Amino acid sequence: MTEVSLRKLNTHYVMPHADRAEWRKLERLQMKVLDDAFELAIERAGIPKDGELCLRSVSAPVRLRLDSSDQSITAHWTAELAQSLTDVIRNGPRSRRVFYYSRQQAVFDFALCVTRGEYERAWAWQQLGLWVDRNTVESANAVRELVQALTREPELIVPVFRYLAPADALPAMSRRLSSSQWQELSEAALMHAGVFLVRDDSDGTPSSRVFSYALRILECSQILAGISYSAVLQGAGETMRRSIAALAILEAEPALLHSPVAASVVDVVASSIAANRQTVTVSQAAESKHEISPQPPLEEASEYNNEVSDPRRRARTDYGGLLFLIHVIDQLELPQQIVGDSVLGVRPLSWVLHQLAMSLTPVGPTDAAALAFAGLLPDASPPSELEPLATHDETQAVTTLAARIVEHLSSLAIAEDTELLDFVCHRHAEIVADPAWIEVRFSLDQVATEIRRAGLDLDPGYVKWLGVVLKFVYE
Q: How buried is residue 307: exposed, middle or buried, by Cβ count under 10 Å (0-12/13-18/19+)?
């Protein structure tokens, strides 16, 4: 169902004086006409219904026969309005329409344009409720509006920074954010992830494991890599450094923030920022270990020359049901156990999950389901390529985790043990993902009552230890 929001509607009737009373009938018919016309126009233009279409203005003159039946008037009026809408969507000037493939894409565009000082689409952001001030569009207010928009949708805070990194926009953005705004964003993101950090005021030296975790963040964080070249960190106060450190951990290893040493890791990362020790380490790691795929340019024209380019990554997989096991991993609290494990805790959680995916199913390292299982986009570099080969102890530990997952599945009485994993996981699907959202799209013939009864295909929503929203769709 298409949801339509009209900010302003003006209807001007031109009719003989003798028919002036007929306007009441037209007013009554108008709401149904609007609903049906937008549905029809969206269908004709081939616009995906899960996107966000913004139209600045549409003028649609229509001639109606007042002596016709209500049904006839409604049908003709709907067809004419739908055609006017379709013409604007397909062929109208770009200043009058914008299409986003998703809500998060609109936020990404908002953030990047604010960083670049480009406000041509501000009217669309206002329609979407991102830019709340409808009276003025000024550069001085842009960052404030962006911060407020992100705190209203805190699951997008870290993905926005991750999205800005490949566009070389983080230095400019970091210079425009005040210390209090960094703190506001950090606190909102942490609260959404269910993290409440209590600062460790002890004088003891952090453990070697804490330093190992901190080094992992310094090496892997695109946020730190993106802003390390700017001067913003040189004069950053303690509050600002801790805020940036927390966001970097949420980006690179969110499960760490749910461990007992979370506050200590934040302290070490923040101290490293103060000493500017992360610059060489992070820049080298970004160059040698983390190849960042550039986002498609936002100004690039689409088929109808009316939309921001789709930044989502897509890939097919034969094992889309692997993502159903996210529920099992959550129920068994495996991420917290992995982080604290003496063997697996030295590895990034994404590496462990990726190894686990390949242990549970016969998928290769570049399979989209295996990457999504680790919270990664379909075109991301496999964690197995960024880390040393698994040791014997690590392989045994991953095998043990896989056995626990199978045991838990068996308790749900979904299928015979010998075919259990294949029954659950071997399902053709398309993975559609961006930095904030992973959608697993199955065809309707993939619906299984056993899986539905067990609750495995319920949308997990925001998965705090992956840092993304996970959604299952049957179509």
A: buried
d(CA 475, CA 473): 6
CB 246 within 8 A of CB 196: no
Encode pLDDT of 278-309 as tens digits.
443 333 333 334 333 334 443 433 443 445 77
Residue 184 has pLDDT above 60, yes or no: yes
Q: Are 473 and 429 in contact (CB under 8 A)?
A: no
CA quadruple 291, 295, 297, 302: dihedral sign: positive
Half-sphere exposure of 60 (CA within 13 A, CB side): 25
What pLDDT, on a 0 to 100 scale, did the predictor assign at position 139? 77
pLDDT tens by residue, 323-365:
999 999 999 999 999 998 999 998 999 999 999 999 999 999 9
- Three-state SS at 363: coil
Specify the long-range contacts of residues 175-180, CB closer than 8 Å, at least 24 apart: 175/230, 175/231, 175/232, 176/115, 176/143, 177/143, 177/147, 179/236, 179/237, 179/239, 179/240, 179/243
Rounded Cα distance between 111 and 125, Å, is 11
Q: What is the pTM of this model?
A: 0.81
75 burial via Cβ count (<10 Å: 0-12, 13-18, 19+):
middle
